[in-house]
Design goal:
- By secondary structure, the protein is of the alpha+beta class.
- Helices cover about 30% and strands about 25% of the residues.
- The chain has three helices and four strands; from the N terminus they run βααβββα.
- A four-stranded antiparallel sheet has the order 1-2-3-4, sandwiched between helices.
- Helix 1 packs across helix 2.
Length: about 120
Amino acid sequence: MTHLRDLDPKVITELTNREFTCRLVTDDQADIVKALECIYSHYKYDYLHQALYDIDYFKEILQGGRYVAAVAENKDGQVMGFGALDAHPWFDGLMEMGGLVVNPIARGLGLGDMLDEYRVEIGR
């Protein structure tokens, strides 16, 4: 089991670029770590679903289709926003909006709206 705390999570404190696009998180460990560091930047280890800090668990739920994760990333590779779609527990094939996190230094740039629109498109 690889936990984010074992990797000394990095918190970005300065934006190098304000042009963002949304994309899906892959099951590559480095990509998962960037997404989890975005969650960590806001919540530290107080995020509701503690298991998400476990990189292997995160990879498993991505690969199993129970979870679809997206990030808002700038052209310099800084991930400043994270949003998820979760499989509905009662209705097979139905996804619902999950967590949404924007790094505090990137608030006010419209990343939350951008991730919401992206997740709605993915959900369709």
